[in-house]
C-alpha cells in the first residue's frame, strides 16, 4: 500500500469526490451500485462500490453540486497538504482517501473512506494514523462519526471520547415557531472577525480561511448585541451547515431565523447535535422536525462546544 498526498488539482479532487460520494451513499443505506473512483495521478478508476470506515455527516459531496465538492476538496488540499491523503494498492488503484485540517491548534478529520476489498487490511488505520500525525501538535481534536461500529471502535481506540449525536429533519412548520427575540442580519465577509472570535471561544480555534469557502456558498445569519454574538450558515437545501454562538439565547435566535427563512415546503436538517445542544432540540421540535439518533461526535482534549452545531466538512 502506498499513501500519496492529494494534490490541488481537478483530477485528484474528482477522485476523492467519487470516493466520498460512494462512501456517503453506502453509509446511508443507498443503492450499492458501482461507482468509479476516478484515480489521482493518472491511475485507472476502481469500479467497486465503497463501504465507509467513516464518513462525516455532510463531508461527502453535495448532491447535484460536484463542482462545489471538488472546490472544498481542493481548498483542504491547498490549506492542509499534510492532512490530505489517498491510499493506493499494489496495482496503483486508489482504495481509500482521507482529509484533515488544522485551525489554530484544533485538528479535525473531514473524511476517511475505504473500499470494502481493502477493509481489514490496515488501509483505514494507515490513513487515520497519517492524518493524526499531521495534527500531533494539536491539543484538541474533533471528528463527526457515522453509526458504523468499526468507525466508533476506531476513533475510541485512537483516544477520542464518543458523544452520541442526534439529528433533526423534516419540513418546518413556521406557524409553530415563536418569532426571534432579537435582530438578526444577513452576514458578509465584514463579520469574519466576529465569527473567528466566536469560534475561538467555543472550540479553541477559529475556522479562519474556511469562512472564505463557507461565505461563497452559503447564506450566513449573524446576531450581535451587548449580550453576546453568534452566526449560522445555512445551505440552499435546508441543512444548517454550521452554528456558533456565545449564549443559548443567541443560538436559539439564529437557528429560529434560519429555519423561518426557508421557502415553504423545503426540508430542513440539523446534524451532529450532542446532549449539550438541548436548545437546538427545543427549536427543532417546536418547528415540527423529527428527532433521531445519528452517530457520534468524537472529541479529544475538549468538551462538546456549546452552543454549537459543527460543520460536516470543516467541523
TrEMBL record:
Protein name: GNAT family N-acetyltransferase
Xref: Gene3D superfamilies: 3.40.630.30
Keyword annotations: Acyltransferase, Transferase
N-acetyltransferase domain ranges (all copies): 40-183
Presence of the UniProt keyword Transferase in the record: yes
Sample GO molecular function, one term: acyltransferase activity, transferring groups other than amino-acyl groups
Region called Disordered, residue ranges: 1-70
Amino acid at each position: 500500500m502506498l499513501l500519496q498526498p492529494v494534490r490541488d488539482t481537478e483530477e485528484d479532487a474528482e477522485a476523492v469526490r467519487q470516493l466520498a460520494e460512494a462512501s456517503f451513499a453506502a453509509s446511508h443505506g443507498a443503492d450499492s451500485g458501482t461507482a468509479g473512483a476516478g484515480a489521482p495521478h493518472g491511475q485507472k478508476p476502481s469500479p467497486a462500490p465503497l463501504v465507509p470506515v467513516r464518513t462525516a455527516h455532510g463531508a461527502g459531496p453535495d448532491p447535484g453540486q460536484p463542482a462545489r465538492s471538488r472546490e472544498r476538496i481542493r481548498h483542504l488540499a491547498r490549506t492542509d497538504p499534510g492532512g490530505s491523503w489517498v491510499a493506493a494498492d499494489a496495482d496503483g488503484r486508489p482504495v481509500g482517501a482521507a482529509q484533515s485540517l488544522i485551525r489554530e491548534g484544533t485538528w479535525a478529520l473531514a473524511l476517511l473512506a475505504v473500499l470494502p476489498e481493502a477493509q481489514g487490511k490496515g488501509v483505514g488505520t494507515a490513513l487515520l494514523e497519517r492524518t493524526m500525525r499531521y495534527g500531533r501538535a494539536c491539543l484538541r481534536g474533533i471528528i463527526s462519526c457515522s453509526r458504523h461500529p468499526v468507525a466508533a471502535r476506531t476513533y475510541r481506540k485512537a483516544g477520542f471520547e464518543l458523544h452520541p449525536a442526534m439529528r433533526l429533519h423534516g419540513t418546518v412548520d413556521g406557524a409553530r415557531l415563536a418569532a426571534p427575540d432579537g435582530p438578526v442580519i444577513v452576514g458578509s465577509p465584514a463579520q469574519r472577525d466576529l465569527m473567528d472570535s466566536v469560534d475561538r471561544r467555543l472550540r479553541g480555534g477559529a475556522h479562519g480561511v474556511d469562512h472564505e469557502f463557507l461565505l461563497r456558498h452559503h447564506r450566513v445569519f449573524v446576531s450581535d448585541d451587548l449580550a453576546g454574538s453568534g452566526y449560522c450558515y445555512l445551505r440552499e437545501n435546508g441543512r444548517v451547515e454550521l452554528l456558533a454562538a456565545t449564549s443559548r439565547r443567541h443560538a436559539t435566535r439564529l437557528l429560529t431565523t434560519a429555519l423561518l427563512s426557508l421557502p415553504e415546503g423545503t426540508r430542513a436538517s440539523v446534524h451532529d447535535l450532542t446532549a449539550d445542544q438541548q436548545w437546538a432540540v427545543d427549536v427543532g421540535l417546536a418547528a415540527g422536525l423529527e428527532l433521531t439518533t445519528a452517530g457520534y461526535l468524537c472529541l479529544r482534549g475538549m468538551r462538546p462546544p456549546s452552543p454549537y452545531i459543527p460543520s460536516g466538512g470543516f467541523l
